Amino acid sequence: MKILVLNCGSSSLKYQLVDMQTEQALAKGLVERIGIENSRIVHQKGEGEKVTIEQDIPNHQVAVQLAIDALLHTGHGVITDVKEISAAGHRVVHGGENFSQAAIVTDEVKKAIAECSSLAPLHNPANLVGIEACEKILDVKQVVVFDTAFHQTMPEKAFMYALPYGLYEKYKVRRYGFHGTSHKYVSVQAAALLGKPIADLKLISCHLGNGASVCAINAGKCIDTSMGLTPLEGLIMGTRTGDMDPAAVTFVMEKEKLSPAGMDDLMNKTSGVHGVSGVSSDFRDLEQAATDGNERAKLALDMYAYRVAKYIGAYTAAMNGVDAIIFTAGVGENGASTRKDICEYLGYLGVSINDERNGKRGIEIDISADNAKTRVVVIPTNEELTIARETLQLIK
Ligand code: AMP
Q1: Is residue 10's pLDDT more than 90?
Q2: Which of 30, 58, 186, 317 is paired with 307 by a 20 to 30 Å CA distance?
Q3: d(CA 62, ligand 1 centre) in Å
């Protein structure tokens, strides 16, 4: 069975065709600049060469059709008939309080996704457009998998903000958390790598990519996570502030005469390690700059590791212990020195890493020293596979 996984942004579409027998991606691609000039599709069959086709792509329906045409192509395609696609699984960013798991697309489900748009105005409308484009082209069941769903097991004490309660009742202002698909996937893989049932494990998963979040997972369930109402709360990120005094927001707005939208932009796009260092949001550039003696790049890296370590301490307290810490996503999977910097704060938990194992890349690996009490593992994330697995489960 083959499942098409789709991730629609406002002007982009990522796709992957997953073979559920092998759980491998047969082909994947990215349609970029939908509705704007210079649009194109970049398609890759297996691990083969990338093929780029530049053409006018006025809307998401054309984008979905192009992706399917690429999958059917005699040269770089991987199927001969569109009927080989058994179902489509869509990533949806915000499911609000309505979805604690994936769902088959119905009119009610679409309405509920639309209702969450005010909480994710950049993402949910684009996700819906992708679903509707797909409905017009493919005659298969469609499933939606939410970034927020895994975090719906958080208890009230973890998800509420200490604002007047009426604001929660009126607007559902609360913490939701994101990257749920990734945290879920890596926690399942980590338990398998450690050879223990997930029900017996207290795990702290660190998804450190361009966006970054930490998640406390007790017996396979999320009990707390660092992102909140939006993906701005928590860790310092590439260009996002993460936690800070809320009063700093109004202070800076007044001083800099910024509108709410202007302040939102500043906190999301020009802050984080980029804002502090003035160098880059990319950790490879930051590490190089720090090695070359750039003090602000070093400061940004120090602040970053310190914040992650503080969250790990907090979540160890929340779970009354931790058995393993998981690193995943761009920085978590590749940034050996960032992992080391974080772990250096955690000796009190019985964390100790083996430098040689920490230097390995691209595999699932336990990087702890042999005698370490708390294990540290690196698990390459695979959100597309999780979406495909959940889609399969629902259509069965
Ligand atoms: P993601 O959002 O998961 O794709 O992560 C993207 C980020 O991963 C980039 O912005 C880089 O900061 C980081 N990254 C990628 N490769 C490396 C590397 N070799 N070392 C350190 N960081 C890396």
Answers
A1: no
A2: 186
A3: 31
- Any idea how long the chain is? 396
> Of 79, 99, 77, 103, which is closest to residue 90 (Cα–Cα)?
103
Handedness of CA 95, 101, 102, 104 (dihedral sign): negative
Q: Is the CB of 111 within 6 Å of ligand 1?
A: no
| Alpha carbon distances (Å) from 29 to 3, 38, 65, 136 | 14, 17, 13, 20
Q: Does the C-beta of 177 come closer than 6 Å to ligand 1?
A: no
| Residue tagged active-site, from 69, 147, 264, 366 | 147
* 283-293 mean pLDDT: 97
Residue identified by tokens 């993460």 is 242
Dihedral pair phi/psi, residue 126, rounded to 5°? -65, -40
Question: Over the stretch 249-258, which tens digit does the pLDDT of each residue have?
Answer: 999 999 999 9
Q: How many helices (H) and strands (E) does the chain have?
A: 15, 14
- Report the candidate in 180, 198, 196, 178 with the shortest Cα–Cα distance to residue 188: 198
Residue in the structure block whose two tokens are 């409905």: 135
Catalytic, 69? Answer: no
285 lines ligand 1 (CB under 6 A): no
Residue 102: predicted pLDDT = 97
pLDDT tens digit string along 121-150?
A: 888 998 999 999 999 999 999 999 999 999
**Tokens describing residue 145:** 């998998």
Q: 156: which residues sit within 8 A by CB, 6+ positions away?
A: none
Q: Residue 240 carries which DSSP code?
A: -
- 233, 45, 52: which is closest to 151 by C-alpha? 233
Ligand 1 contacts CB of residue 304 (under 6 A): no
